[in-house]
Backbone:
């Protein structure tokens, strides 16, 4: 399991340029006019993780298989998208299919690149997009409410309760306030998940700045960061123009050299993936052997049987126990044998919560 991250924003904020850089491809047409992207472009990228190559060497593995993340480049939204402006309904439908949203916000001035509102104001841009997402969700909820009201005539208490939940969410969105999960019971939140609302998807703001501001940001990106913190979202600073230059280099050493010259520690890909993992509370565990070393993505607080089920459903059904070694111990004692000899290989049962970096071997019987 990886996850699918939708890249959204107003036209001409650098979405497609960023997508090309992230996926090191030219799938997305980057052009200086609105709606250069109509059908969503999808790019699958390996999740950067230095631990994989270390484990692969220790395990003398024939193959190394990383986790993957899908980026979906969704066309630029405009004011009125929820009513179909700029093919908006179609684009909003694409957003419903992703796990998290990366909202690219223009935080640079460039007279050669047009802006749909003829002025650079990132908070206004965010408000425009958020309003359209809220209006789209209200429309979805009104439709669902009508459907449930027809069934509620039979006196089903559960349906009546579901209608009250929908009405509360509509009121929230109408007041332009974000939905807080702690306002509802766990059972209510399970029902809310089935509504597939855009506005409750985790949001990462990507501040696209000029090259000079890529290390510390600028006044525009600071405003976005403050907005993100206030609304319990994350933000990262990138320069799509720098990343597009890096992506054009074929040699990995040259890429690393250019990143260092720019005074950067992380590529945009690493920043966005780390941000996405934090948003969705994801971690990785590993399997390591002569045939392959592999990374598996799971949610935090996943129990051992469910983690085993990511490999194969039979592993979960017939779970007996997990042999588990912490990554640092696996490296320090040079693999499974050394870890076992030093008492670092643990036998864990069904109630074990898998930790980030665990190297695991599952025993099962079907």
Residues:
């Amino acid at each position: 399991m990886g996850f699918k991250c939708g890249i959204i924003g107003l036209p001409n904020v650098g979405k497609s340029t960023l997508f090309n850089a992230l996926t090191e491809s030219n799938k997305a047409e980057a052009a200086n006019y609105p709606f250069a992207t109509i059908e969503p472009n999808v790019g699958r990228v390996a999740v950067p993780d230095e631990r994989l190559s270390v484990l692969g060497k220790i395990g003398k593995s024939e193959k190394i298989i990383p986790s993957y993340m899908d980026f979906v480049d969704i066309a630029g939204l405009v004011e009125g998208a929820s009513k179909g402006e700029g093919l908006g309904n179609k684009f909003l439908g694409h957003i419903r299919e992703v796990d998290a949203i990366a909202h690219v916000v223009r935080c640079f001035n460039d007279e050669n690149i047009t802006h749909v509102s003829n002025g650079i104001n990132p908070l206004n841009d965010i408000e425009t997009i958020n309003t359209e997402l809220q209006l789209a969700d209200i429309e979805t909820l009104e439709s669902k409410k009508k459907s449930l009201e027809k069934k509620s005539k039979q006196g089903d208490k559960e349906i009546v309760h579901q209608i009250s939940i929908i009405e509360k969410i509509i009121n929230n969105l109408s007041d332009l306030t974000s939905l807080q999960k702690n306002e509802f019971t766990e059972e209510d939140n399970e029902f809310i998940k089935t509504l597939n609302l855009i506005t409750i998807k985790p949001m990462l703001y990507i501040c696209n700045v000029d090259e000079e501001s890529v290390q510390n940001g600028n006044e525009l990106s600071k405003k976005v960061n403050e907005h993100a913190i206030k609304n319990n979202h994350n933000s990262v600073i990138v320069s799509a123009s720098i990343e597009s230059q890096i992506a054009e280099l074929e040699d990995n050493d040259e890429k690393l050299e250019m990143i260092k010259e720019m005074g950067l520690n992380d590529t945009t890909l690493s920043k966005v993936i780390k941000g996405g993992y934090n948003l969705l509370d994801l971690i990785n565990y590993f399997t390591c052997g002569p045939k392959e070393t592999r990374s598996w993505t799971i949610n935090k607080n996943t129990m051992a049987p469910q983690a085993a089920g990511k490999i194969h459903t039979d592993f979960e059904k017939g779970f007996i126990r997990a042999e588990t070694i912490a990554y640092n111990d696996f490296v320090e004692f040079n693999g499974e044998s050394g870890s076992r000899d030093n008492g670092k290989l643990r036998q864990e049962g069904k109630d074990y919560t898998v930790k980030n970096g665990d190297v695991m071997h599952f025993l099962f019987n079907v």
About this structure: The two ends are 23 Å apart (CA to CA). The longest helix spans residues 122-152.
